[in-house]
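Repro:
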Amino acid sequence: MIKIKVEYLIVIVPCALFLMLIFMAVLSKEGRAVGLVNGRLASCPDRPNCICSEYPEDQKHYLEPLSIPADSYSADQIVSIVVAAILEAGGKVQIESRVYISAVFESRFLGFADDFEVRVDWDEHRLYFRSASRVGYSDFGINRARAEGISELIGSRFVAY
């Protein structure tokens, strides 16, 4: 039987965990947002690191969509407000159109990449959000907080615009 000194385990286990985190962070940079699926944002997987306002039946992942005053603003103004809010929150916009906006947020610790997506529904006058981690299981509520914060920021800009 192999005997391993406890002192070695105290060093080896944390180093292995840290290397695993680095690998996951690098892996997260290789992905991209899911995008629209049949004209809607993708549903969340069965992990707590995703939030989406498209599917009210999925209560653990649900966030209310944001009503937009489409009669008061042009499409270009609304998209500009959404993009400005994402940039202010620290995101990097990758795709910008009249119906879909995709951005990436990177964590301060190791640069884990999370996707943030917005679908603009001009018929219902609503913004639908999806924020999800690319890797891992839990996000400690970061994606929910991000989506809620950006939704509030956009809502406040409609009033001030």
